[in-house]
Amino acid sequence: MPPANILIADDDGAIRTVLNQALSRAGYDVRLTGNAATLWRWVSQGEGDIVITDVVMPDENAFDLLPRIKKIRPNLPVIVMSAQNTFMTAVRASERGAYEYLPKPFDLKELIAIVGRALAEPKERAATGSDENECDSLPLIGRSPAMQEIYRVLARLMQTDLTVMISGESGTGKELVARALHDYGKRRNGPFVAVNMAAIPRDLIESELFGHERGAFTGANARASGRFEQAEGGTLFLDEIGDMPMEAQTRLLRVLQQGEYCTVGGRTAIKTDVRIVAATNKDLRILIQQGLFREDLFFRLNVVPLRLPPLRERIEDLPDLIRHFFVLAERDGLPPKKLDTLALERLKRHRWPGNVRELENLARRLAALYPQDIITGPVIDCELASPAVASGTGGHNINGLSGAVEMHLSSLFASFPNGLPPPGLYHRVLREIEVPLLTAALTATHGNQIRAADLLGLNRNTLRKKIRDLDIQVYRSAG
């Protein structure tokens, strides 16, 4: 059997030489060209078993050529290379029917592996190109290697309904990725419904997800649709899935297994057609070991795991991100801003515990509070400096629990773009205070619940119920 013939199109002679050497050593026949016209002639004449082409060619853009190639030879694999390493480049490659997208520079071993995989697959791949108008705005920002891998995975997922689990620290943009999967995927014409598990009281989660019938519980005066019903035909984004209580996890697992659910108080099974995208800032495997998350549900949700890197791991994206946020602030009526070199370097040295969300909030603060057009290094130093804790006279005394909570809440409200956290704040704050309070009392009494209840001024049965409801681990020791 003769070796496979690979058609390579790139106007950079050095790249053509490198690819020729690598693929020839791998045992392939290679034909090289520096323009799209020659590549089109070869393809239209039936030559080549696979195409490797750069996006930007001197005579035609590969994205314009790709639909024509897929029309006359739908089963010809086309690998697209590009130095324009943006999310939309990966999406366009996928929409135009490319087999794979490779951002330059790339690993030659990886390219050879992709070529081998493409040639080994059955020749039944249909064109997946789309003639719809493309969005010029970028939903995801960054050209770092970490983000390039995210773009490539997302591009592969656009034409599928696979369940995706997005993990990452708070503020890394998990919902943005979920929205990109929806907005550029096959369900783009359906609804995108997001629900934050941490923002819903535990006793209302099932009603929130699946809806309820009139009279199902006290206060249910009318039938209400749940998030599954609202997302029908589209995407359901389950944010902070690690905060879902076990009883709701069991019902969710049943829905994923059977493809149907019942409303709270209902008896008729309802078929569901939604794509599930979940997200968490917790390590679900640790929660599984602690008995707080179902392992079978984890495997149902973790079909395609996607880890978003924290900003400190993609710090080279910071200049693009801060420019983007300044543009958004300007669109909202704030004055235009730029950073000088020292200011940018100072930002790059920051650890960014709040990740991209922290950077966005800083950009808006700079645009709103500072009159100068160019933001300097000293301004950034002032903004990123740890706030001094005032005490005594002449300042606000934050000593004591009340002051600490007030300071925490001020920071919490400021961390959201519109200054408003998700609904359910009252119950979340109480739980955040209640868990360490009960844990401290149990620790001080060495796990003795009778003594801990007396210390707290609670009935013993009340304490036991709270321990169970809040999933508090009780460790007993001698002492």
UniProtKB/TrEMBL annotation:
GO terms for molecular function: ATP binding; phosphorelay response regulator activity; sequence-specific DNA binding. The modification 4-aspartylphosphate is found at residue 54. Member of the two-component regulatory system NtrB/NtrC, which controls expression of the nitrogen-regulated (ntr) genes in response to nitrogen limitation. Phosphorylated NtrC binds directly to DNA and stimulates the formation of open promoter-sigma54-RNA polymerase complexes. GO terms for cellular component: cytoplasm. Residues 140-368 form the Sigma-54 factor interaction domain. It comes from Nitrobacter vulgaris. The gene is ntrC. This is DNA-binding transcriptional regulator NtrC. It is found in: Cytoplasm. One of its GO terms (biological process) is regulation of nitrogen utilization. The keyword Heme does not apply. Its main location: cytoplasm.
